[in-house]
Structures are given as structure tokens and as C-alpha cells.
Amino acid sequence: MSDPGLQTALDNNYERRLKARLGSYDSLPEQVGIMRKRAHEIRSAVIANLGRYVDQFERAAAANGMLIHRAANTASAVEIVLEIARANNVKLVAKAKTMMGEEIRLNQAFEQAGIESVETDLGEYIVQIRGERPAHIITPAVHLRRGDVGRTFHEKLGIPYTEDVPTLTSAARDRLREVFLKADMGVTGVNLGVAETGAIGILSNEGNGRLVASLPRIHVALMGIERLVPNMNDLAAILYLLPRSATGQKLTVYTNLVRSPRHPGDPDGPQERHIILVDNGRRALLNSPLQESLLCVRCGACLNICPIFREVGGHAYIGPEGQVTPYPGPIGSILSPALFGYADFGHLARACSLCGACKEACPVDIDLPGMLLRVRGGKVPEPAQLPNTPASLNLGLRIFTWLATSTSRFRFAQRMAGLFGRLLAPRSGWLRMPAFSGWGISRDFPRPAAHSFSQRWVSRQGGNTDSLSLAGSRAEKAPAGLPGSQEEPLLTTVEWFGRELTGINGIMIACTRAELSKQVLEVIERENLPALQTWADDQLPAGLLDALRQAGVRVTHESDPSLAGGLTGALAGVAESGTLVLTGGSGRPLSASLLPRIHLAVLRATDIVPRLPQALSLPAIMQASSTVLINGPSRTADIEMTMTIGMHGPGKLYVFCVQGKF
């Protein structure tokens, strides 16, 4: 609390995340309250029937060609990963950000086994080379200023000191590109698994999640057994809320849906995909007072809104002997004692003001304040006494309980506290808190009011107490700005798609089939792209690649990291978010949309659908080994919340929207 740099970083995170999250709700297809309720019901149904859904997912994934492993605990999960690595003579691991990896301390296990493991998410990479742990679920380096990162890169990478964020980002991109290309194995987490299809969803903004899951010959996905939805429609319902709650985006830049290892004839993708289903205490939470914590989708919204997290940051959530928990904030104060030991982490639940903001921010409407109170009361899977509690605090809690469980006693205590508080601060109006309390470093205690809130409220209402209940008083905000509403004129799906694509830094060029080759060549000349990695001739409009060859453009279908441009088709577009849908398969290398710095995509106007559920229901997605939803150019904001376009994926995205038949 006395670190001004940390306080500034945490304040910036709070203010920007809050503004982005609230603004993104306006574009939801239904009222946010309705969608949160539905998301809660979806996740609750999974948790209530967890065994059945885990079995269904395992059968479907195995039928797709995935290699499934079950891990009861940390030791088992680590041993399975190391066995896979040893069996394949793995020397270098490219690792995407995974909370399960943090939970089982996988990097430390790799180090002890003599295997090099490199974090490829920018924030995770920064804290890894600093020898720190992540300070946030989705923004690992939230505690650092750009100067901190500049000094770290100067000391660890040998580059000249700079505070220019694009320069720092470019330096990290160059170092990590070699890791992607040389890694023997990629390790990712799993945001959500689909029980019906056996597919897993891996979300990332930078593109590292896609690279880690597609370039190495072995892909290992670590998945908590609770991270499931029943079907693709339910996946769409969660995807409407998860990115908005995490970063304020309508959709994450890359939503990678992985069904299987590469099929015969596929131009890219791993030869083996392993899914490790990790329990690690989750089944013990079933039918416990903390069961609802299993609904969490790890968006980090409760951290962003929490007034305690805003003051102390993620590194303050530790055990009495310095034990580290990967989960800070409100959800971490529940999961940490439940999964890793009440004696070590039960005290974290006391770092809470019970303001209820975390529940309001949660996209799946988890009752976080209620569960924090249960942890405080020792209501965990294994009942226990309050941990690490001084005798004086225990006495104070017992006295408070006695006072608070009686209306008359509580009102009397309020009056006494107000009376003595005002006597102690008759002039200044403030009680100066002692510095040794910690809180007094940056806060003073306000002078108590002469009358309680309830007394003042009843007085204003003329003695009417019926209006004291505020439950349900907040009206839900109806979605605005949808095509055809009173706020704006009717848009076609093509116009809607173009507007949304432009809003996420993409570029749409509408053209006829006859104009396509000319338009593509103009962009190639403008961007100085003498060579392209492309999809096969029969996967693009007839004659397009011949026209490029005749103009002197070198065209290759093979993956070449040195090429600056990639040209692909698209299965579909999603108008409401400006998203492209690409499926892998014969003649369709997905690396062409990821490795180059500029991505050119050809999309038929008739293939644009209004909403996400319509796109996810397309039959081709159910057949492809891998599908990616692309929402604009690659981006990151891991250094001081500064948006930088073009991290691991393309920094420019051109979409040629073609009217008429190919």
C-alpha cells in the first residue's frame, strides 16, 4: 500500500477494465442479467452432474483421436506430463498461459527434470524472467510499470533500456518466435471443453495459444474437470460473457476450437494431442458449501472490481509461511483454502469488505460474498477452526457475533460506537488511524454519523419501513445499438460485419468477384508483400492465385515463418462481432492466418451470419480437426495496460468481402 508504482498500476487496471466491461455489455443480444442467469444455469447443470459430463467428454474426445489422461492430484498431473515429455525426448516446451499449470507448479517440475519451459504469453514471460509469479489471473504483470519491464529486458535480454511499449513488445515477440518454431512440445490450458463433441476451447489475444497448440508435434492440454459445457450452443452462451468480463472485448482475438490431432492430409497441426483431466480437490467440493465456486470460468472480473485487490494486488495472497496460491482476489480466497488447505489459506477470506461488487461483476453470477462468509466460518469440505487467528481476534469475533445476532443489541452497539467515535473526533471530523494498522498508511477512518442509515432512511420515508428492502431495485439495461433499432438505421449483415471489423482494427474491402484479384494485388503492392503463404488453389476463388502468380507474386502453400503475408479463405463471418471463422483441413493451412505479420482473408458476403451461435452450429466445424474464430489483429495490453497491435499473430487483417458466387 505504500508503493506508489503498484498503486498506480492497480488503479489503472481497475478503471480501464471496469469501463471496458460495462461498455461491452451494450452489444449483448439480450439483457446482461438474463444472459448471466443462463450462464449460471449452464454451469450449475454441469457441476450437478459432473461425473456424467466428464465421462461424456472423455468418450467424445477419445473418439476424435485425443489421448485422455486422468490425474487425481498435483503429483499425478505432473508425472503424466513428464512421462509424455520423456517418451518423446522433449528438450524445449513452449507454454501458453494456464492457471492449471500454475496450480500444479509445472514450470518448477520441468526445471527439476532438466527440461526448458518458456512462457509465451507476454505477461507470463515477463514475470518468468523476473523470477516472479503472476499477479493476476489474466494480466500476470499487472503490478509492473513500463520502466520495470524496460529494466528487466535490458538486464535479461540485453536490449537497450527503453520505456517504449511497442519496442518492448517487439523484442519479446522476436525472442519467443524462435521458441515456437523449435519447441518439441506445447502446453496449454483449457478455457472450456464441450462434452457433446469432445472439443476444447483455447482463448488468447496474442496468438501464443494458437501457436503453442499447433506448431509443436506434441500438444498437451491441462484441464480442470469442472471446465465443461454440455454443447456448442452453451459454449456460445459463455463466450458472449467471458471475454466481455475479462477484457471488455466482444470476443477474444483467437478462439481456437480443437477437436483432434491433425487428420491425414491436414497441412499442419500436432501429431498427438493429450488432454489431462485434473481433479486436484475439485470432487471434494461437490455437495460442499463451496460447490458453487466450481462454476468459475477464470475471467478475473472479480479481481478487477475488488477494492481489496485494488489496494494490495495479487502477490499479497499468501499463506503464513509465504506459501503461494495461484488464485488471488475474491475467487482465490475461496478456492485457495478449499483446494490447497484451510490452515494455510483460510485467512484470505477475511481480506474482504463484503461490498458485493464481485458478485455483480461475475459473468456466471456466483455468490462470492456468501461463500467468503462460509470460508470465514470454517464451512469447507473439511470442517476446521479458523486458521492463523490471534486470540484477541477470536474474542472480538465472538463478541461481534453476539451483538450482530440480535437486532436490539446491534442497534445499541451502533449508538455506542457513534457516540464514542464522535467524542474522539469532535473537530476534525476524522479519526487518524495508527500507522501500525497498515490501513492507516493511506486511509483515515471517517467520523461516525450521528444516526444510523436505517434511522435516517425511515425518517425520510415518514416511518414507512417497507422501502428498506433494496433487492431487485436495479433495472436491467436493455441492449442498444443493434441493427434496425431506434438508435440507428437498419444495417445489412455485410454492413454490420464491416462496422464491427473496423472497430477492432480490421480492414474490410467490399468487391465483386471480377474486382477481387485487382483489389488483392493493390493491397499486396501497398504492403510490399512479394511472397505469400496461401491456401490451396481449390480452396480460394478460381483464378485468384493464377492472377497473383502472373503479377510476379511468389505463392507457396508450405509454412514459411519468413513470409510477411498470408492469404486464406473463410468458412463464415459473424456480423455482431466482425469475426472470421476458419477451419483447418486439406489445402487449408491455419498457419497462413497466424505466422505472417499481415493476414489477407477472402470471405463471401453470403457466408456472413448475424450471431455467434449460428456460426458455431455449422457442420464443417464438427468435422475439422481445428477451427479458429479470428476477431481482429493480434494484440496485447500486458505492459501497463497499453494496447499494442501485433504480438505473436498478424498485426494487420484485411478481409475481402466478395459479392456473388466464387
Summarize the structure.
The protein is 40% helix and 15% strand. The protein is α/β, with parallel strands linked by helices and 662 residues long. It folds into 3 domains: 51-248 and 269-282, NagB/RpiA/CoA transferase-like (Rossmann fold, 3-Layer(aba) Sandwich); 289-376, Alpha-helical ferredoxin (Fumarate Reductase Iron-sulfur Protein, Chain B, domain 2, Orthogonal Bundle), CATH 1.10.1060; 493-659, 3-Layer(aba) Sandwich (Rossmann fold).
List the defining traits of the structure above:
alpha/beta; Rossmann fold; 40% helix; 662 residues; six-stranded parallel beta sheet; 3 domains; 26 helices; Fumarate Reductase Iron-sulfur Protein, Chain B, domain 2
C-alpha termini separation: 61 Å
Structural class: alpha/beta
Count every helix, treating DSSP H or I runs of 4 or more residues as helices: 26
Shape: globular
CATH architecture label of the largest domain: 3-Layer(aba) Sandwich
Give an account of the 3D structure.
The chain is an alpha/beta fold and about 650 residues long. The protein has three domains: about 210 residues, NagB/RpiA/CoA transferase-like (Rossmann fold); about 90 residues, Alpha-helical ferredoxin (Fumarate Reductase Iron-sulfur Protein, Chain B, domain 2); about 170 residues, 3-Layer(aba) Sandwich (Rossmann fold). The chain is built from 26 helices and 24 strands. It has an eight-stranded mixed sheet with strand order 8-5-6-9-21-18-17-20. A hairpin with a 7-residue loop joins strand 22 and strand 23. Helix 1 packs across helix 11 and helix 2 packs across helix 11. The protein is globular, with a radius of gyration of 27 Å. The N and C termini lie far apart (about 60 Å). The relative contact order is 0.12.
